[in-house]
Design goal:
heteropentamer, A alpha/beta, B mainly alpha, C alpha/beta, A: alpha/beta, 5-stranded mixed sheet, B: mainly alpha, MetI-like fold, binds adenosine-5'-triphosphate, binds molybdate ion, binds magnesium ion
């Protein structure tokens, strides 16, 4: 059910519009696909993406980056944007969520098959640092499960965790399910009990200074539409 | 012994090199291996069949073209700013010279992302100068100009430091001679100082251009990452890494090839160099 | 010359650290031989006149123009004309030919001051100079492709071609061969006829051939 | 005119500088402002009251100490590797010299994160050499040694380029004289080449140390980030930035102060330099 | 000396590009004056002997040791003894004192070869040399703090103090004053008595005072 485009909208009047979307790097593949579908339906709209870490995106927005939409990888950074009145709070909505999984290199040299084994002595476990969203989530999950994580390294970003397991530097790591799907031939996944209770949510919102507020909101609707959801799910996200 | 007749059709033998201690050669070979091995690892890690598609994608070409333009512009600005700055640091004796020298090197030592934050605070819309510029209708943040500014900021220290050490070690004899032949300071600068500074300029340009080409953190923070406008090669590579580290390495190969080209051109020497 | 005050050169220089203290004058158009043992201050004197070094105390006047006036070693000088405005040609003890320029370009370098305009006129003039110093055909060589005596001669030509009002020559003939030395001496006699000149030399021949007067520096110990 | 008596109690006047064209001074002042303004913006952005707490936190102190140790070690290695490498590049004429020179500069031009990937492929547990080392029980993954390796890799090009251009522009006259006095190549290297290379070494050390101190991407990719072991100042700063950009800027101030100190020491010159 | 083949120096050198072609021999213990016009190849000859430049074709033998043997300009030489193994002291036309070392340290630099061991013995010996060249008390000066003639004398002392088997002197007395020149000439007469020497000079006085034989280079045009 694609939402109807209102008559007052720029696209409908034939006026060309360019949407600037600030989006978390982990959303790159899915959002690019979604935008292809969107522009197929709205040929007058061009969508330009600015992909970066969520903290950088908020900094960019705050310092005047042209933007119509902000899609962050965590609620904390979206909160900051909201407090600074950078986004229109009424348009803020959650459109996807992510769960943590454990990963090991395909040959699994340390014979790890669950979180307990991953925390054993002599196993190089890498996780995200508690200061970043996926690290905070890992911490919560570990507490919930009742294990004491003793990482060899606390990474700044999920990609860094994935990279270390992928290259065999590390024996195990905790990443988002979406990231695990990026390297199916190089890492194997193990489920973590209780992970589906601890979710990371992706909020999206129209910016306060959007030049095409209507088109922007149309796009947000489209992301939440069936088309958008099926693309997101294909990339490993859970959708509300 | 008979006097041998002169041989004219033979390339003259060069003046002899003073030679290098053999232990230094051993260390050099080791050090060389340290560089060559990762480089081989890099080449080994590339899936060559994916390469053509990867390199000719719209976004990669946009990024490449943007990188070339911005890095060249930044290098040009670094020459224009760096030469006078190095001259003043090397050859004048104003109070606070050491402080100035340190300030010039600050961009070198702060992490690039912090450099980006600082640039925002100075040249951003709400920055010290940015605000005035904004009032005049000039908004540089998140434009290609911002990329050039970020690259210039992080790479100028290389130019200044390199040139200054060359100026300091070459002395001012020839400048004095030129002045005594009635040449003005301005003409002396163009006809004596600059030509004699050539080796320093070459290494300064190489370092500056390379640093500008590789710049990531300050660019993404101050200029953003918008295809065709601010997304340079390193930003493109960074994005590619998210999905596929091999693609990141392959894209880096392009940067490397450019760098090799620039270096080869920069180090090209005329046949008869003056010593 | 009658009025030494208004024409020619008067010098009085003290460089304490080098124990140099000289005072003399050269009438306009004459050649003064500056002689003295090694380390007595000949080069120091010429450097001060050329504007390469500031004396502690000193004053110099050329044809009515004050070149410098430094009455107090602890203060800035009252007057200090920069090197390129003095109209002085200085052949230093190390000739310092520009390494990046050919012999002919070295000779052409100072011709701005000599008021020779036009690139072709300059080049023709420079080739003429090369001929006069016996190095016709060597114009394209870079300094490091010249022998010691050849380089020395190019340096002499470079200074003379720049049309100075006052010429300072620090041992110009030291590296020259038995034939070139007298030839260049003749050249100097001819060229320096109407110029005010200070000539540093250790050789009696030069003094006899070139000098109108001699100033002996007696070193202070 | 009376002969003034020599003045002995006065600092001798220096030989005069040949001077700088005034237009160059104008540009230098502009360029200087370009550096100073962001620096002022940085200082203005710091919440001074938070500073003491921020800087004395356990994690900040750990990071600082780690950064100092690793950057110093990397600089030392860069001297040991860089001097022979620069000598060979500047003064020998082996085939493939230009290629070698380019390879040495590769780490300069690739984005640091890619440098980290490449290092992993070479020295990581499954890397070309790493695998052999692993078999010998040497595992540098996630150790401080890996940090030093990453810093060395990205900063060695600065040392080599700087030294090479100095060696090329200074020629070999003095080395020849030394050999003709019977001095061996080895002794000539230590007593002539190295002392005369001093200005180049100073600027090489400054650039190298600064680059090592600011290194982020290669470190986090190759060595990881663990407090006290691999989390250097830049990593700490990046992490702090997630929560609080102001804290990041404040921590950067410490890096800057260290850099200023190093630079001041490096550029300290003895009273009577030889020209 | 009777057997020129086994003792002393024999030289035959061609450097085509510089139009230099010389062949001569110097018996052991004698002083050969090498004279010729500027650019005739004197410095080139000394550089080849010192090992700073490889001739296109040439051979040199010192006291039975082959210094170099280059029969073919297109090939590697049969033999090429590196500079520091030749035992040759070379005073070049530009003296090239080490700028980072004091006068006394410059003089001490070559004493390794002269077999003077111990830092104190070397220093004493160097001070003695300073005294002999009339520069006692100047030992701590850096080269740029010396006058032209003073630097030249230190360079002479540096070469002689290094105990060479063969001494090559390129215009050693050019910068010296009227008093120093004869004094250094006397010094050379004394020091060079038992050494094989090639002396490049443009001055008849030097030849008369020092040379046993003279070799004239006639330039090829
Ligand atoms: N930079 C310096 N610092 C201190 N003393 C110096 C410096 N340069 C030269 N001197 C000393 O100053 C004195 C005068 O030197 P100057 O070069 O003027 O002598 P000179 O008459 O030209 O001698 P020469 O005939 O050897 O060229 C000498 O004793 C010299 O050692
Ligand atoms: N690097 C070079 N390339 C080409 N020609 C050179 C080079 N160096 C010197 N020459 C030429 O070689 C010839 C011999 O030079 P050399 O320096 O041996 O002369 P010399 O006899 O020492 O002269 P002088 O008395 O002037 O010192 C000269 O004609 C000179 O111009
Ligand atoms: O997409 Mo993020 O903000 O790098 O976790
Ligand atoms: Mg002198
Ligand atoms: Mg010569």
């Amino acid at each position: 059910s694609t939402p109807e485009v209102s008559e007052s909208d720029a696209t409908a009047t034939g006026e060309e519009a360019t949407l600037n979307v600030l989006a978390a790097a982990s959303l790159q593949k899915s959002l690019e696909e979604i935008s292809e579908e969107f522009t197929a339906q709205h040929p007058d709209v061009t969508i330009d993406f600015n992909f970066a870490g969520s903290a950088t995106l908020v900094h960019n927005l705050d310092s005047g980056s042209p933007a119509d939409i902000l899609a962050s990888a965590d609620e904390l950074n979206m909160d900051k944007a909201e407090q600074a009145h950078l986004i229109d709070a009424d348009t803020r909505t959650l459109f996807a969520s992510n769960t943590l999984v454990g990963i090991v290199p395909v040959d699994n040299p340390a014979q790890v098959s669950n979180l307990q084994e991953a925390t054993a002595n002599g196993v190089n476990l890498v996780i995200c640092a508690p200061q970043v969203p996926c690290g905070a989530l890992s911490q919560r999950l570990a507490e919930a499960v009742g294990v004491n994580l003793q990482p060899a390294s606390e990474e700044q970003q999920v990609v860094d965790v994935l990279g270390k397991v992928r290259s065999g530097q590390a024996d195990a790591g905790l990443v988002y399910a979406t990231d695990a799907g990026l390297a199916p031939n190089e890492v194997s996944t193990f489920e973590i009990e209780g992970a589906d209770e601890e979710l990371n949510y992706y909020p999206i919102a129209r910016t306060a200074n959007s030049e095409h507020p209507d088109v922007a909101e149309t796009f947000i609707e489209f992301v939440k539409s069936d088309t958008g959801r099926s693309i997101l799910e294909a990339h490993g996200f859970t959708t509300p | 012994m008979t006097i041998t007749k002169p041989v004219n059709n033979v390339r003259p033998r060069p003046t002899l090199s003073a030679g290098i201690p053999s232990s230094a050669i051993v260390v050099a070979v080791l050090a060389g291996a340290f560089f060559v091995l990762p480089f081989i690892a890099l080449l080994a890690g590339i899936t060559w069949s994916d390469l053509p598609e990867l390199l000719t994608s719209r976004s990669a070409l946009d990024a490449l073209w943007l990188s070339l333009r911005t890095a060249s512009a930044a290098t040009a600005i670094c020459i224009v700013f760096g030469v006078p700055l190095a001259l003043v640091l090397a050859r004048s004796n104003f109070p606070g010279r050491t402080l100035m020298r340190s300030v010039v090197l600050v961009p070198l030592v702060i992490p690039p992302v912090v450099a980006g934050i600082v640039l925002t605070e100075a040249f951003g819309r709400r920055g010290l100068i940015g605000e005035q510029l904004s009032a005049l209708g000039i908004d540089i943040a998140f434009t290609t100009a911002a990329v050039v500014l970020a690259q210039t900021f992080v790479s100028l220290p290389f130019m200044v430091t390199t040139l200054e050490s060359h100026l300091a070690s070459s002395g001012e004899h020839y400048e004095r001679v030129a002045l005594s032949l009635g040449s003005s300071k301005w003409r002396t600068f163009w006809t004596v100082t600059l030509p004699l500074l050539r080796p320093g300029l070459v290494s300064g340009v190489v370092l500056t251009f390379a640093r500008a080409l590789g710049e990531f953190g300050a660019t993404i923070t101050f200029a953003g990452s918008l295809q065709g406008t601010t997304r340079t090669m390193p930003l493109e590579i960074y994005l590619a890494r998210e999905a596929d580290p091999d693609a990141a390495v392959a894209l880096s190969l392009v940067l490397i090839l450019i760098a090799v080209l620039v270096i080869a051109v920069a180090y090209f020497r005329p046949k008869h160099p003056h010593r | 010359m009658t009025s030494m005050q208004h024409s020619g050169l008067t010098v009085d220089i003290t460089v304490a650290q080098r124990k140099v203290n000289v005072a003399f004058s050269v009438p306009h158009g004459e050649v003064l031989a500056l002689v003295g043992p090694n380390g007595s201050g000949k080069t120091t004197t010429l450097m001060a006149l050329a504007g390469w070094l500031m004396p502690d105390v000193g004053k110099a006047k050329l044809d009515g123009t004050v070149l410098f006036d430094c009455p107090d070693p602890t203060r800035k000088p009252h007057k200090w004309l920069p090197a390129h405005q003095r109209g002085i040609g200085y052949l230093s003890q190390d000739h310092h030919l520009f390494p990046h320029l050919s012999a002919v370009d070295n000779i052409m370098y100072g011709m701005d001051r000599a008021d020779i305009t036009g690139r072709r006129a300059r080049r023709a003039k420079a080739e003429e100079w090369l001929d006069r110093i016996g190095l016709a055909g060597y114009g394209k060589r870079k300094p490091h492709q010249l022998s010691g005596g050849q380089a020395q001669r190019v340096a002499i030509a470079r200074v003379l071609a720049s049309g100075p009002r006052l010429v300072l020559l620090d041992e110009p003939l030291a590296a020259l061969d038995v034939k070139a030395a007298p030839a260049i001496r003749n050249l100097l006699t001819e060229v320096l006829r109407d110029l005010t000149v200070i000539l540093v030399t250790h050789h009696q021949d030069d003094i006899v051939a070139l000098a109108d007067e001699v100033y002996h520096i007696i070193p202070q110990r």
